[in-house]
């Protein structure tokens, strides 16, 4: 794999403030004990398997290399992250190290004085291995407040075996071709698309991607900067989504299906070949692998970009995704906390991270370990994309993002409309 395969900034134009994706657990020990030793708390979102083991090994190696420093790990289920972390931040009992993602949420945390500026603490080796664009995904007003671990563009994962069983040839490149694939899969008695609408954001991803196809890059930039959603593309995206939902492409019971928890989740349906497709970010191969019967990668798993939609202003090939990483609390012991961030960004640990999570590492030197065909397809499309925007709920911040997610789920449930989504966006933005 090309060393320079990850080179784009996952943000829309000038909207470079990046968001915190929330995690959770008990609070921070915040620094030095009476005997001079230092203890920190570390929250991440891998509760089982290779991902959990990766962080245990990495922390143990850091502690061995740094006598007197102890890191207490808390692994939190992904769907509980946002709420628990927000509660901890509000109470002044935040962990020293917590997970972060791109968008407006981190900017809010920075504005509240709760995240550490690590700009001058990023070592030369990390800066050489991680593209500036990826580092700046955690930038707020020219300062860096987090360390990226993975680059996670989104798209549609699919089962090659189920496509073949239904007579679907190739992969859809347009929304009409996706509709034809849905029809063939339904005709073969296969649920075409799994979606974990119980968790809201997986269903909202469908609106996000229809918006990337309907809205120009300028319209996305403008909305991110002004929090005004009066461009006609936002309504167009909702109407296109409504038209697609009306074809009934999703698994039975999708409104009560979770995204990543167990065999009955949307990822689990793909892992056990109970559904043919899922729209998700580049973390999905690892999640799916953890839910297969043998807990190994799904051999026939493939990936293709979200299809093009006629009539939209979005540039063909534009993508959406995120950057996962970690930040230090403003109250954390700076020297030890930033040392840990630099430590886990070394090639050895980033390579192990990529293999454990079946994902694309932010450290370019570690990319050679990526062998999964779906991830290699993602990297190819990512490198060719004219621009990549972060997830819209991340880009717009917690209040507007939550309103968007709820509006999208209401549309899925037949309890809302495209107009309702736009109204919800504007109402949430007006409340600040």
Helices and strands in order, then pairings?
Elements: E1 31-32, E2 38-44, H1 49-65, E3 69-75, H2 81-91, E4 97-100, H3 104-111, H4 124-129, H5 132-135, E5 139-140, E6 143-144, E7 147-159, H6 160-166, H7 175-187, E8 191-193, H8 201-214, H9 217-226, H10 232-245, H11 266-271, E9 275-281, H12 284-291, E10 301-304, E11 319-328, H13 334-344, H14 347-357, E12 360-361, H15 373-384, E13 388-390, H16 392-396, H17 398-412, H18 418-431
Parallel strand pairs: 2-3, 8-9, 11-13
Antiparallel strand pairs: 1-2, 4-11, 5-6, 7-9, 7-10, 7-11, 7-12
Helix pairs in contact: 1-14, 6-7, 8-10, 8-17, 10-18, 17-18
Structure description:
This protein is of the alpha+beta class and 432 residues long. Helices cover 43% and strands 15% of the residues. Strands 4, 7, 8, 9, 10, 11, 12 and 13 form an 8-stranded mixed beta sheet that branches. The termini are far apart. The relative contact order is 0.20. The N terminus is likely disordered.
By DSSP (H or I, 4+ residues per run), the number of helices equals 18
Biggest sheet architecture: 8 strands, mixed
Question: Low-confidence runs (pLDDT<50, min 5 residues)?
Answer: 1-34
* CATH-defined superfamily of the largest domain: Periplasmic binding protein-like II
Give the strand tally: 13
Oligomer: single chain
Q: Domain count, please report it.
A: 2
**Rg, Cα atoms, Å:** 21 Å
β-sheet strand percentage: 15-25%
The secondary structure category is alpha+beta
Question: Helical content, roughly?
Answer: 40-55%
The CATH top-level class label of the largest domain: Alpha Beta
Distance between the termini: 44 Å
Second CATH tier, the architecture of the largest domain: 3-Layer(aba) Sandwich
């Amino acid at each position: 794999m090309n060393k320079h395969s990850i080179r784009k900034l996952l943000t829309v134009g000038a909207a470079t403030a990046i968001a915190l994706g929330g995690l959770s657990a008990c609070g921070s020990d915040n620094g030095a004990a009476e005997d001079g030793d230092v203890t920190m708390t570390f929250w991440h979102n891998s509760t089982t398997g290779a991902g959990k083991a990766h962080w245990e090994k990495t922390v143990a190696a850091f502690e061995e290399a740094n006598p007197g420093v102890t890191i207490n790990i808390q692994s939190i289920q992904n769907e509980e992250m946002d709420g628990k972390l927000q509660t901890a931040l509000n109470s002044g009992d935040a962990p020293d190290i917590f997970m972060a993602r791109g968008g407006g949420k981190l900017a809010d945390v920075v504005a509240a004085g709760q995240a550490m500026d690590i700009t001058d603490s990023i070592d030369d080796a990390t800066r050489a291995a991680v593209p500036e664009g990826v580092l700046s995904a955690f930038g707020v007003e020219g300062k860096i407040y987090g360390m990226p671990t993975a680059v996670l563009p989104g798209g549609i994962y699919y089962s090659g075996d189920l496509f073949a069983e239904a007579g679907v040839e190739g992969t859809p490149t347009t929304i009409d071709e996706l509709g034809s694939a849905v029809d063939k899969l339904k005709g073969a008695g296969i649920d075409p698309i799994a979606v974990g609408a119980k968790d809201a954001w997986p269903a909202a991803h469908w609106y996000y991607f229809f918006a990337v196809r309907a809205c120009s890059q300028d319209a996305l930039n403008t909305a991110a900067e002004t929090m005004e959603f009066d461009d006609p593309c936002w309504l167009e995206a909702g109407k296109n989504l409504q038209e697609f939902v009306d074809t009934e492409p999703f698994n039975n019971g999708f409104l009560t299906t979770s995204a990543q928890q167990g065999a009955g989740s949307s990822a689990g349906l793909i892992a056990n070949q109970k559904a043919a497709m899922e729209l998700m970010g580049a973390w999905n191969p690892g999640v799916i692998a953890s839910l297969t019967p043998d807990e190994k990668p799904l051999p026939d798993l493939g990936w293709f970009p979200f299809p093009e939609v006629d009539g939209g202003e979005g540039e063909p090939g534009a993508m959406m995704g995120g950057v996962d990483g970690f930040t230090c609390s403003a109250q954390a012991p700076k020297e030890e906390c930033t040392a840990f961030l630099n430590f886990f960004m070394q090639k050895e640990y980033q390579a192990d991270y990529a293999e454990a999570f079946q994902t694309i590492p932010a450290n370019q030197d570690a990319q050679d370990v990526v062998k999964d065909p779906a991830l290699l397809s993602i990297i190819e499309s990512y490198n060719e994309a004219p621009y990549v925007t972060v997830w819209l709920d991340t880009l717009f911040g917690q209040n507007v993002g939550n309103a968007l997610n709820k509006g999208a789920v209401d549309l899925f449930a037949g309890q809302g409309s495209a107009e309702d989504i736009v109204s919800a966006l504007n109402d949430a933005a007006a409340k600040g």
